[in-house]
């Protein structure tokens, strides 16, 4: 009996030691950070990764005593990044709109910023949409696995959706009338349109799909203490001073008040 108890105690101590070692190795800087070209939240300009979500990630981690650099963040097509984040391990995907459909796929830290997911059209087409049931008569461009597709599929849309993985190409499809509507985040759509050298005044928002918020989406295997550390750092960024200013708002203003660079490619 005594021998059995000793074996049980030894096993318990081994398990506790393993858990302690795992926690000691837990570090925000060791995670795999994935993002896409989604200005002004995350994008590459002149070979440098930047944006609201990038700067907030680095600043929030620093608040919690961790060092993350832009060089640790990989930028890749959204569909590949999205599926890689779901599979893990130790992966963080941003910027990700949090929805009921995605809720159980990830663990979440945020919010980073409020967003508006809208349908855009060419002004000259004079499209008016008063209710969701009218959407089925239009061809709608969506980014595969992005929030626009998620929302429209939840509304019963399928056969009228045109999926693509390159946002710049989607902008041109709308411009040329190859699709009648484009489902995307309002601010990001404006950046892409201008970056492609087009006049956003030629387009207009014709329907609001959802007002939501962006988050950092963690693969389910990431230890909760790391999520809590980043959440605490992000919350600290949002603390206001006596004048009502916060580091969170300063980061947003830095990007929302500057125009995007135009593309030099000919399309």
Automatic annotation (TrEMBL):
<dbReference type="Pfam" id="PF00497">
    <property type="entry name" value="SBP_bac_3"/>
</dbReference>
<dbReference type="InterPro" id="IPR001638">
    <property type="entry name" value="Solute-binding_3/MltF_N"/>
</dbReference>
<protein>
    <submittedName>
        <fullName>Transporter substrate-binding domain-containing protein</fullName>
    </submittedName>
</protein>
<feature type="domain" description="Solute-binding protein family 3/N-terminal">
    <location>
        <begin position="30"/>
        <end position="252"/>
    </location>
</feature>
<feature type="signal peptide">
    <location>
        <begin position="1"/>
        <end position="24"/>
    </location>
</feature>
<keyword id="KW-0732">Signal</keyword>
């Amino acid at each position: 009996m005594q021998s059995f108890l000793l074996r049980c105690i030894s096993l318990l101590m081994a398990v506790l030691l393993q858990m302690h070692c795992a926690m000691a190795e837990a570090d925000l800087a060791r995670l795999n950070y994935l993002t896409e070209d989604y200005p002004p939240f995350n994008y590459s300009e002149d070979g440098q990764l930047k944006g609201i979500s990038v700067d907030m990630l680095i600043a929030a981690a620093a608040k919690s005593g961790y060092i993350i650099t832009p060089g640790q963040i990989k930028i890749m097509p959204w569909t590949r990044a999205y599926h890689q984040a779901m599979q893990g391990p130790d992966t963080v995907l941003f910027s990700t709109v949090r929805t009921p459909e995605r809720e159980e796929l990830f663990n979440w830290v945020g919010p980073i910023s409020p967003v508006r997911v809208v349908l855009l059209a060419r002004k000259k087409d004079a499209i008016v949409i008063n209710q969701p049931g009218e959407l089925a008569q239009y061809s709608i461009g969506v980014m595969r696995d992005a929030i626009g597709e998620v929302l429209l599929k939840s509304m019963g849309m399928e056969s009228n959706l045109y999926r693509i993985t390159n946002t710049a190409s989607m902008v041109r499809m709308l411009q040329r009338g190859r699709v009648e509507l484009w489902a995307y985040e309002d601010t990001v759509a404006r950046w892409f349109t201008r970056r492609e050298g087009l006049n956003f005044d030629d387009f207009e928002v014709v329907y609001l799909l959802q007002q939501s918020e962006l988050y950092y989406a963690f693969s389910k295997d990431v230890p909760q203490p790391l999520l809590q550390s980043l959440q605490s750092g992000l919350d600290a960024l949002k603390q206001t001073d006596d004048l009502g200013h916060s580091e969170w708002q300063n980061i947003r203003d830095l990007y929302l008040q500057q125009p995007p660079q135009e593309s030099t490619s000919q399309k």
